[in-house]
Amino acid sequence: MNSITDIKGGFTLQNGVKMPYFGLGVWETREGEEVINAVKAALQYGYRHIDTAAVYHNEVGVGKGIRESGIPREDIFLVSKVWNTEQGYDSTIRAFEASLERLGTDYLDLYLIHWPVKGKYRETWRALETLYSEKRVKAIGVSNFLSHHLEDLLDKASVVPMVNQMEFHPYLVQQDLIDYCKDNQIQYEAWSPMMRGRIFTIPELIDLAKKYEKTVAQIVLRWDLQKGVVTIPKSRNKDRIKSNAQVFDFTLSENDVQFLDSLDRNKRFGPHPRAMDFPPLIRKAWNYYIRKSNK
Asked: Which of 3, 88, 230, 290 has the largest count of CB atoms under 10 Å?
């Protein structure tokens, strides 16, 4: 595994593409100035990995933030995802084209299936394989796929997913799934690493933050990286975006890494991949996006 010493460092995917192990997530970051400023701040502070999705309805702002940052597009690892209602072969190709248009780019560094929609994700994956073979995306992967989803996908896939983006934090480790992904050369990635803000109330994390003279967020994000997990904390606040990235001047002891592992409660704060019971905010965002696109 690569040394975790610099914000511009990364883990190497199975196809040789380097994926920055630290990035900015923009879920719940509003389209327009809010997301533009968040992206520009992140790039100013050295981030080179930006993660969005069609359902976030902020791809236009993400693209504008990248362009206004002055950082060359080729130096940025840009990620988006195909939403559930757009899954299927032809519709995924169209969704990809629409994302490129909104982002103002002619390629993506990583494109993901957002959720494992039953009866759809195999055909969706076939579309991603086509996009990959045409070199329109540098890497392809999945999000929220449990091991049985991956096994089913791999049964027919020509290309093994390069990334699996999952809810991951001290209360939801899923070590068996991490091990499965490692065995199959699938890079594990964390969404919601801060448990939607709940990490700041956990006494054990507060104690570790005092021990290392770091913030609770920095402790958790450093743990992610030392676990070999790509992490994409979201924030709209410039100071927090800067603070979150200050995790390269200390190392957690192996005992403390294992202690953080031991906090696992198999507790989710987002939808379960089996149920895919999405919060009203996600449904509302997607419905708004569809109405706007059809005007």
From this structure: 230
